[in-house]
């Protein structure tokens, strides 16, 4: 237990280092970008409010040497002060936390779909390698790689919203309707289907492939033979013994993919008008609200770091072979 | 029991790679000689708007909201996609070789620092990073290429580092060190040529993903406004999705086939160049 | 009284859409409570035979081609999946060569034993766990109460094999198949495991099929033995008669290859006889005796006709033209 705590501490320290380094990269970009950092962050909106810019310059200490500026920048970030959004006139962190739940909902939903779909398809494909199921599934997952996410979303809208009229194509709620709590939840769910499936399809391809390869590898291991020799059902052999071992790498794959899912969420939120962080980032580009954009980038990097930290701990919990080395 | 691909799947895969090569050749030819064979300006407004494909022989794939010819847009897009895909990959492979090579050859502290750096770049969500870079530095082809390269090099660096670490231990490299050959010479004449096969495989897959990233940028309006690219065409068509969905569908299908073709060729290369690996 | 009768069993391996027999026309009986050893070099089909009996062959790579496996007058070669499940583990169980790899790495050993018990007995999880602890004590795993919640990677190879034995004997099977149970273990541990096996056998009365390439072990604990070569039985009989009077040239060479004396530490031991060559590959087995290419006393007939297993005296049978003509 003691060693687990130490491991936890060590990984957390390491993660904080990564976050600081990312902040430095942000700072660097602001510095090598054309114009002064405040110009970049606020001025380009065209309506550079001199008072605000002066305040920003002062808070950044732009008259001071670079390393002092960096220190100020980091100190602000440390207090989770991501600055003000020029366009909205409220703190960036407030905006982010306002939009975060929608994005998290989208990500979690699509992750569940991708994970479930990937496991089911991967297991099915691995049960009879070389069969027609296997070939079809491999082909479909190859297609998943090659399809641009936003295009897939648009085509789903054409089919399910415009032609069949089954699912809403825009937003998160039906505007102008008063629902009960359950009704509202169902309404959100209804709006969630298309964007979540779009985002999921892309990642499902990877999960399916990895899952298939893992299952085949585990099927060849000796403990599976032991399991069969016990007289338990083949279903139990597959799900209890093989799947549990094969699914572990998927957990770490998830950590690797979080960044990709966040990037995909930007496109999907734009296509489906989903009011989340991605949509906020997209809007900030055209409002030239770089402070906000920078804040979202930083925040999503931190999110990736946190998720990876959680994945590490989860893995250590799931796989008893991982002895925590202090 | 090792995973043995059946004869059929091997055949299918090679067939798939061959098919990919054919599709890729078509796209390449279109990009190179298309503009000479089909001399229509993709930006020219022809007067007939929202013409469906196959209606007017003068515009085989129809026209868009403003009456611009779709086929000429696709031809222009092929140039842009391939140009950006290849140059962004070339740039990131170069960065990856330098960083991974230094880390793998010199090991120790150099390795430590460079790999931390690689890790950090891998942590930042790459698509959001690209968006920010392009937005801050203003969209232009150069900026798009460099931005994509900035987020794409880490996997190459890791791969090159691994290859260098293992190749460095090989007897022929060790004997070069013993006879006092210069370090740069060892790297360029002994190690790098032997590490090329996996780099080429990775690079081919990266071209595909660079094309997808560019399409996403252009779709979001983050591409040079004077460039007609596939992603941008899908973006233009989005506003009339209900009545003219073909405007978004056609460029997407073209992207799909191009990316698929490149991936298939990449997998074929992988099978041919390192038969031991499974490409995971 | 025999409890298992194997009759002309053929097990085939599928390679590139061709079927090769890896167990070829094997017949034998297993008596209640006895220890029957099956010996032979690696690749002679011993393990395939073991997996055939329990029908846990790696399908579709391998399958039973023909023959019968009579257990209680039921033909296991024909038995349905559900029927086999009531036999596996409950009436016939198996332990394997590599105990570490044979246990599921992400499941506690207690759970793995309990899974076996719960599958075949109407018992609560709690009682199954209690029983698992008892079984671990029975196989003399130290600290059974604590170790029951350990994962396999925390145990040594010898301990894992004890766990495997505990699991295999959990439902008091009538037959225990031990497929090279000590090969992967240290020499000192080997003796302990063997002693444990034969003790438990006399306690539970189970018949044991011991598969091994090690004749020294056979001499120690087996009652009868079958010598297998290239998928076929070439000699069978009681340990006393086969060791005392080996008839088949292959058996003789196997016995000559046993290190004599007390061990390599005690001075010089003579150069060990080795059997030259190796078991012919599956696609190189032709008509005639499979051993003829490596045999010192092969005659012309050995290369054209296949010798069949014939009783020579009492329980002792041999499949060799030369040996059979000597006896006649």
UniProtKB/TrEMBL annotation, chain A:
Topological category with respect to the lipid bilayer: Multi-pass membrane protein
Segments crossing the lipid bilayer: 12-33, 104-125, 137-162, 182-205, 246-272, 292-318
GO biological process terms on file: transmembrane transport
Predominant subcellular localization, coarse grouping: membrane
Keywords: Cell membrane, Membrane, Transmembrane, Transmembrane helix, Transport
SUPFAM superfamilies per the UniProt record, alphabetical: MetI-like
GO CC terms of this entry: plasma membrane
Protein location: Cell membrane
The keyword Transmembrane helix appears for this protein: yes
Domain ABC transmembrane type-1: 100-315
Superkingdom, natural source: Bacteria
Pfam family, one: BPD_transp_1
Similarity-based family: Belongs to the binding-protein-dependent transport system permease family.
Protein name: Dipeptide transport system permease protein DppB
Species for this entry: Oceanibacterium hippocampi
Lineage: Bacteria, Pseudomonadati, Pseudomonadota, Alphaproteobacteria, Sneathiellales
Automatic annotation (TrEMBL), chain B:
PROSITE patterns: ABC_TM1 (PS50928)
Matches recorded under CDD domains: TM_PBP2
Compartments, as annotated in UniProt: Cell membrane
Membrane topology: Multi-pass membrane protein
GO CC annotations on file: plasma membrane
Pfam families: BPD_transp_1 (PF00528), OppC_N (PF12911)
GO annotation terms (biological process): peptide transport; protein transport; transmembrane transport
SUPFAM superfamilies per record: MetI-like
Superkingdom of the source species: Bacteria
Key words of the record: Cell membrane, Membrane, Peptide transport, Protein transport, Transmembrane, Transmembrane helix, Transport
Annotated ranges, domain ABC transmembrane type-1: 78-266
Membrane-traversing stretches: 16-38, 82-106, 126-151, 199-222, 243-265
Family: Belongs to the binding-protein-dependent transport system permease family.
Name of the protein in question: Putative D,D-dipeptide transport system permease protein DdpC
Taxonomy of the source species: Bacteria, Pseudomonadati, Pseudomonadota, Alphaproteobacteria, Sneathiellales
UniProtKB/TrEMBL annotation, chain C:
Gene Ontology molecular functions: ATP binding; ATP hydrolysis activity
Domain ABC transporter: 4-255
UniProt-listed InterPro entries: AAA+_ATPase (IPR003593), ABC_Ni/Peptide_Import (IPR050388), ABC_transporter-like_ATP-bd (IPR003439), ABC_transporter-like_CS (IPR017871), Oligopep_ABC_C (IPR013563), P-loop_NTPase (IPR027417)
Protein name, entry field: Oligopeptide transport ATP-binding protein OppD
Any GO CC annotation of this UniProt entry: plasma membrane
Domain of life: Bacteria
Keyword Amino-acid biosynthesis among UniProt keywords: no
Gene Ontology biological-process annotations: peptide transport; transmembrane transport
């Amino acid at each position: 237990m003691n060693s687990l705590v130490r491991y936890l501490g060590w990984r957390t320290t390491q993660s904080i280092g990564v976050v600081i380094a990312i902040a430095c990269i942000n700072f660097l970009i602001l510095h090598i970008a054309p114009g002064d950092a405040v110009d970049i962050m606020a001025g380009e909106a065209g309506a550079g409010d001199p008072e605000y810019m002066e305040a920003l310059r002062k808070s950044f200490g732009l008259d001071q040497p670079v390393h002092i500026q960096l220190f100020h920048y980091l100190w602000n970030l440390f207090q989770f002060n991501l600055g003000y959004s020029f366009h909205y006139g409220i703190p960036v962190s407030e905006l982010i936390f306002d939009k975060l739940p929608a994005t998290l909902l989208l990500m979690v939903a699509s992750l569940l779909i991708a994970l479930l779909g990937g496991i089911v398809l991967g297991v099915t494909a691995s049960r009879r390698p070389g069969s027609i199921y296997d070939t079809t599934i491999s082909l479909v997952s190859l297609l998943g790689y090659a399809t641009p996410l936003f295009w897939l979303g648009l085509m789903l809208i054409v089919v399910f919203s415009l032609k069949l009229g089954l699912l809403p194509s825009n937003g998160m709620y039906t505007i102008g309707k008063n629902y009960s709590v359950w009704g509202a939840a169902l309404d959100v769910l209804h709006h969630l289907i298309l964007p979540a499936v779009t985002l999921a399809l892309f990642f499902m391809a990877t999960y399916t492939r990895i899952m298939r390869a893992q299952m085949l590898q585990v099927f060849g291991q000796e403990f599976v033979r032991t399991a069969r020799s016990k007289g338990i059902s083949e279903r139990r052999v597959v799900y209890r013994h093989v799947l549990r071992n094969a699914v572990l790498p998927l957990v770490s794959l998830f950590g690797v993919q979080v960044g990709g899912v966040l990037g995909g969420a930007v496109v999907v939120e734009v296509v489906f008008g989903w009011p989340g962080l991605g949509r906020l980032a997209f809007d900030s580009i055209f409002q030239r609200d770089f402070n906000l954009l920078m804040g979202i980038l930083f925040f999503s990097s931190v999110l990736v770091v946190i998720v990876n930290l959680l994945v590490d701990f989860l893995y250590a919990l799931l796989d008893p072979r991982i002895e925590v080395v202090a | 029991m090792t995973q043995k691909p059946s004869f059929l799947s091997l055949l299918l895969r090679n067939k798939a790679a061959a098919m990919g090569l054919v599709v890729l050749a078509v796209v390449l030819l279109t990009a190179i000689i298309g503009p000479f064979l089909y001399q229509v300006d993709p930006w020219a407004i022809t007067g007939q708007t929202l013409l469906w494909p196959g209606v007017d022989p003068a515009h085989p794939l129809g026209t868009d909201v403003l009456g611009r010819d779709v086929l000429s847009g696709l031809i222009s897009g092929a140039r842009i996609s391939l140009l950006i895909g290849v140059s962004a990959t070339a740039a990131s492979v170069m960065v990856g070789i330098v960083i991974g090579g230094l880390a793998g050859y010199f090991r120790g502290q150099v390795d430590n620092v460079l790999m931390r750096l690689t890790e950090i770049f891998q942590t930042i969500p790459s698509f959001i990073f690209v968006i920010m870079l392009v937005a801050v530095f203003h969209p232009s082809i150069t900026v798009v290429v460099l931005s994509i390269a900035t987020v794409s090099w880490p996997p190459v660096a890791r791969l090159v580092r691994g290859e260098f670490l293992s190749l460095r231990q090989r007897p022929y490299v060790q004997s070069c060190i013993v006879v006092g050959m210069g370090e740069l010479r060892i790297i360029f004449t002994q190690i790098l040529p032997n590490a090329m096969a996996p780099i080429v495989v990775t690079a081919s897959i990266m071209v595909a993903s660079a094309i997808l990233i560019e399409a996403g940028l252009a779709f979001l309006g983050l591409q040079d406004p004077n460039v007609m690219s596939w992603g941008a065409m899908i973006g233009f068509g989005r506003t009339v999705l209900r009545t003219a969905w073909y405007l978004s569908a056609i460029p997407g299908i073209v992207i799909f086939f191009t990316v698929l073709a490149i991936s298939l060729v990449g997998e074929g290369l992988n099978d041919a160049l390192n038969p031991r690996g499974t490409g995971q | 009284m025999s409890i298992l009768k194997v009759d002309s069993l053929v097990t085939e391996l599928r390679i590139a859409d061709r079927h090769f027999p890896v167990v070829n026309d094997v017949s034998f009986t297993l008596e209640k409570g006895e220890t029957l050893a099956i010996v032979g070099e690696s690749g002679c089909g011993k393990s395939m035979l073991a997996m055939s009996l329990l029908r846990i062959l790696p399908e579709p790579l391998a399958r039973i081609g023909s023959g019968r496996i009579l257990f209680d007058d039921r033909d296991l070669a024909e038995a349905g999946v559900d029927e086999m499940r009531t036999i596996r583990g409950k009436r016939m169980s198996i332990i394997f060569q590599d105990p570490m790899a044979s246990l599921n790495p992400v499941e506690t050993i207690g759970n793995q034993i309990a899974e076996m018990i719960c599958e075949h007995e109407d018992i609560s999880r709690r009682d199954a766990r209690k029983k698992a602890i008892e079984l671990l004590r029975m196989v003399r795993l130290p600290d059974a109460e604590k170790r029951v919640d350990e994962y396999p990677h925390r145990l040594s190879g010898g301990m894992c094999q004890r766990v495997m034995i505990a699991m295999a004997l959990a439902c008091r099977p009538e037959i225990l198949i031990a497929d090279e149970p000590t090969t992967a273990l240290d020499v000192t541990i080997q003796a302990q495991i063997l002693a444990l096996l034969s003790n438990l056998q006399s306690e539970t009365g189970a018949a044991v099929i011991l598969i091994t390439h090690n004749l020294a072990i056979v001499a120690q604990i087996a009652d009868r033995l079958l010598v297998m070569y290239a998928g076929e039985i070439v000699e069978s009989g009681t340990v006393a008669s086969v060791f005392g009077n080996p008839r088949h040239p292959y058996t003789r060479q196997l016995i000559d290859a046993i290190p004599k004396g007390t061990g390599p530490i005690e001075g010089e031991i003579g150069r060990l006889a080795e059997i030259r060559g190796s078991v012919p590959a599956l696609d190189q087995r032709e008509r005639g005796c499979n051993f003829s290419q490596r045999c010192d006393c092969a005659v012309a007939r050995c290369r054209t006709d296949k010798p069949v297993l014939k009783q020579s005296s009492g329980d002792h049978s041999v499949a060799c033209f030369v040996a059979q003509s000597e006896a006649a």
